[in-house]
Structures are given as structure tokens and as C-alpha cells.
Amino acid sequence: MLFVLLSAAKCSHNKQERTEERDAINLFERGLEVHKAGNYEAALSYYTQSIAKDSTQYVTFLNRGYVKEILKDTLGAIQDYVIANRLNNTNPIPLNNIGAVYYERHQPEIAEKYFLEAIRVDSLESDPYYSLGLIAYDRCQFQKAISFFKRFIELKDIVSKRLSTGDLYNELMPEYEVYHTLSLYYIGLSYKNLNQIDSAIYYLKQALSGGISEAADSLNLIHENKR
Prior knowledge:
The protein is built from 12 helices and no strands. The chain has a domain at 137-226. By secondary structure, the protein is mainly α.
């Protein structure tokens, strides 16, 4: 959901404004192309040029923020996400991304506020639930973690439909599947910590079949403790 295409320029009765808007879209699309190719410095340049032409498109700030995050300019990323949210406060992605940056900066209390706000904006957006699950797990709030991770898993069909609608299924659904499997793993670990062993085994086996090799170690420990 970080890559969003601008379908058309806004309607304008001013010829110069229309030209600026078309130029902004062209620059955005060039940025998107090199962004997808992994050329983040070039993407940053194109997005910045696009914003200079038209600073009203939230997706340009959103994508530039993501590029800045990759380039380790986390403060710049937050600033762009804040602007993206200001331009479109009905979209949860900027809020989720701000939360993700703060989580990576080891500031879970601030991150949690943004993840919860993202859910308030759109309760069907999956990513904040996964992140809140991690925060709860880190705090040893295992029952709470289970609830968040299960909600993330429950939203799979909605994630699939949204990505298909945005023509992003092939690009982003595999990433969701990875986190889906990791959610199973963390649910299993949470049940293990709650001493609900049957449930732990059930979810850890699913995680193992999904490719999480660490689940095997947890299952072995459970079996050893049963002896």
C-alpha cells in the first residue's frame, strides 16, 4: 500500500496549473518506477521534484516518507508521513507508518498511540494489529498479543481484496503472507508462555509448516518438558 498511482491530475481551469499538475504526476510516476526498482536516491529526487510542482498529493509525501525511512532519515520520514496524514486523514497508512518508525526507534509507547489511531481511522487495516501484537508480546501481555495477532490473521480476505483492487496483489500479498505466518508463531509462543500447551502446539505446528524454523525449537522444548 506504499506504492499508489495517481490516476489523473485534478481538474483546473488554469492552464499553467494543469501543466504543473501533469508535470507533478509524471515526476511521481518516474519516482515510483525507480522506487520499485530499488533506486531510492533517484526516487527521493523525483518525489521531491513532484512535490515542488504540486504539494497537495498525500501519496507523494507517503512514498517519499517511505524512501526516507529506507535511507535512514527517520525524522524526515516522520515529517512526510505527518504531512500525508494532514492531506488525507481518512487513510490509516501514514499513521501506521509513523508508528512503525517510532517502533524501530525503540519508542513503543509513542508507536502504540499511532497504531491505535490508525485502527480508529480504519479498523480493517491489518498492519497496525500485527505491530500492536509485537508491542504486547514484548511487554509479556500475552493474551493481548494473541488478540491482536488473531485479528491480523482474520483480515486476510480483506487484505487480499484491497490489494487486488489497488492492483498490488502480486507485489504485496507475499509480504502479508510472511507476517501471517509470523503471527501464528507469536500466537504459539504466547500460548506457551500462558502454559496453554495444546494451543501452543497447534499454532507452532502451523508456523513450522509455513516455514518458521524457530517454531521447531519451541516445539522440541515443549516435548522435552512433557517428559
